[in-house]
Amino acid sequence: MPPLYDLRYWGFFVLGLLSLLLLMGALLQWRHQRNLARSSERLPGTAPVPRPGVGRPDRLIRWLGVSPAMAQRLARLPGIERYERLLQQTGWPLGSAEALSGSAVLAVGTLLLATLAHMPLPLALLAALAAALALQAALLWQRNHRAAQLEQQLPDALSLVARSMQAGHAFSSALQIAAQESPAPMSEELRPVFNEIQYGESPNEALRHWAERVAGEDVRIFVIAVRIQSETGGNLAELLHQTAALIRQRQKLRGTVRVLSAEGRISALVLTLLPFGLAGLLTTLNPGFMAQLWTTLTGQRLLTLALLQMGLGVLWMWRLVRVQP
What we know:
Blueprint: H1 7-40, H2 68-75, H3 80-90, H4 96-116, H5 121-166, H6 171-181, H7 186-198, H8 203-213, H9 217-232, H10 236-260, H11 262-285, H12 287-290, H13 292-295, H14 297-321
Helix pairs in contact: 1-4, 3-5, 4-5, 5-6, 5-10, 6-7, 7-8, 8-9, 9-10, 11-14
């Protein structure tokens, strides 16, 4: 068995793990480009192709070999609808069966790679678990990143809708203009709303579906304002201008809170990276001393317990420094 403090050993393991991640990314990018090519062949104004959902397992079998029986079992899992909504909010062409299968493949590949590298079983299992959780963390990051982009673009889109209505356009045609003029991802979200209205759905229901598809709160403020206006009456264009101004004020307050909480977030980042950086430094300076943690049974147990407790502590710490205005 090669020494675990050998740099070539860890280089082989890291390169293999990067190869797995690049393969997963290439498969996802290929599938996304294929969907874009198919959507570009449709005539303008047609409804978008439905995303693979929980209740349609036949659409989930084309990626990573997901079988219909497996998709049906996943559809019966508790909380799968919330997970499917999270995947929809990322904007990535993924269904629940695809994402979970990808996590399983990544975990098995990492475990196999760790076994080939003669890594101790507890550390190999921990690495496989970390690889699976890394994919889920990437999904959460993408969901939050896309929600932040939508919230940043929403005031300009609302102002554009309001100006279009003041110029004489109806609400639905104003949404179409905003979808054409707004950058992604706002344009990708406004087109389905316009299509639903064109196919007979009421504006309130189309906006409610949009609010369910996105993760940001500012979109819900806009939807609630429009629904109240439809019941009470009034100038919708002026209401949209006021809603856009309100959302801009919320964003300004959110930026102020982010600046004031920067010290806590930086401290959390330092405390998260410090143990791993210190472990790498000690391994470089004194490999035999640190090797006791993974070459002995007692060291492996202590290291596994320490990593689990550290993971819980990191999650709790980042939860504390995350301030919502």
